[in-house]
Write a structure and sequence with these properties.
Blueprint (H helix, E strand, L loop, with lengths): L2 E16 L4 E14 L2 E7 L9 H9 L2 H5 L4 H7 L4 H18 L3 H4 L8 E2 L2 E3 L4 H10 L5 E5 L5 H11 L4 E5 L6 H13 L2 E5 L19 E3 L18 E4 L1 H4 L2 H13 L3 E4 L6 H10 L5 E2 L16 E3 L2 E3 L4
């Protein structure tokens, strides 16, 4: 019989991390351990208020399945018991990890994936004044890909400051649902002129149908609008790229299905993350193989990470040793 434990952990952010909705100096994650004899499967998730999640609600959701998990609940059953989201992600990834430990096989092999290779991740510049964004862009100007968080205020000036201070970096931007159609009309031509490659989630998820008729000067990526396979078909004709995150899909199992279906429907793939530790990033590296955009810089945005953690060399991220 298995033993199940879960807990809330608080991790300090490096400085302040700001997006259009809020700012953080620390983040709360929920971790779970599924213990079966000498084998321990671990998973981490980041409860997110945008999706009506709190650390306590996620711990409660995990606790609701405690007896089933102790008695051998399998990954294939999770989708009928929990909705997509953080709690299911932590459990799903812990069960993958446990299966790997028990079988002696790496998760990528269990999932019938090719051996994972190192990837180049975006590095995120959070919302700030144009002057501060420019200073941070200069510090990070050796990175190949910068992701700039926008808020609907001074966005063009922030992008211009980034381009001026990181002239050789590729740039993508993320509005986190902060724009209006007026913002889109005014900003998109200027962003294209500044060499921005892609715009992530310009409009609120409930108001993104306008994308069907707006001019498309740059590819547009769905983040808050894209969760699992069920959410995907509505996005055809609205978005060019979908951002797949384990905390949205409810784990690696559904994320792999979503990646396959999205490619079949003609979407480019982005694999992203919430700010979190290497425990959350390790399975996402497997998902991110072959993605058009990789945004797995969560541990880089923390003041410290787990030990041992995912290895980063600049913006290159390496798969965890099995």
């Amino acid at each position: 019989m298995r033993t199940i434990t879960s807990q809330i952990e608080t991790w300090p952010v490096r400085g302040v991390f700001r997006i259009s909705r809020d700012s953080k100096t620390e983040i709360d994650v929920v971790t779970i351990e599924v213990i079966d004899g000498t084998n321990i499967g671990r998973g981490e998730c980041r409860p997110y208020t945008r999706y009506n999640e709190t650390p306590k609600s996620v711990v409660a959701a995990i606790a609701s399945l405690k007896s089933q998990l102790e008695n051998g609940l399998e990954r294939s059953e999770l989708g009928q018991l929990l909705p997509p989201g953080a709690a299911r992600n932590a459990i799903d990834c812990a069960l993958w990890d446990l299966e790997s430990k028990k079988s002696g096989l790496p998760v990528w092999e269990l999932a019938h994936l090719p051996p994972p290779q190192p990837l180049i991740t975006a590095y995120t510049l959070s919302v700030d004044t144009p002057e501060n964004v420019g200073l941070e862009a200069k510090k990070q100007s050796s990175r190949p890909l910068l992701k700039l968080k926008l808020s609907g205020n001074n966005d063009l000036q922030c992008v211009a400051a980034t381009r001026a201070n990181a002239p050789d970096s590729r740039i993508i931007v993320d509005a986190n649902e902060a724009w209006t159609t007026h913002d889109y009309a005014i900003l998109t031509p200027e962003l294209a002129r500044l060499g921005v490659e892609m715009i992530e989630q310009p409009f609120p998820a409930e108001a993104d149908s306008c994308l069907a008729t707006l001019p498309r000067l740059l590819p547009v990526c769905a983040d808050e609008s894209c969760h699992d396979c069920q959410s995907l078909h509505r996005l055809v004709g609205l978005y060019d790229v979908v951002n797949i995150k384990l905390d949205k899909t409810g784990g690696l199992t559904e994320a792999l299905r979503l990646k396959t279906l999205a490619a079949e429907l003609g979407f480019e793939i982005m694999v992203g993350c919430m700010v979190g530790t290497s425990l959350a990033i390790a399975p996402a590296i497997l998902l991110a193989q072959g993605a058009r955009y990789v945004d797995l810089d969560g541990p880089l945005l923390l003041a410290r990470d787990r030990i041992p953690g995912v290895r980063y060399e600049g913006s290159q991220i390496f798969p965890m040793e099995s």
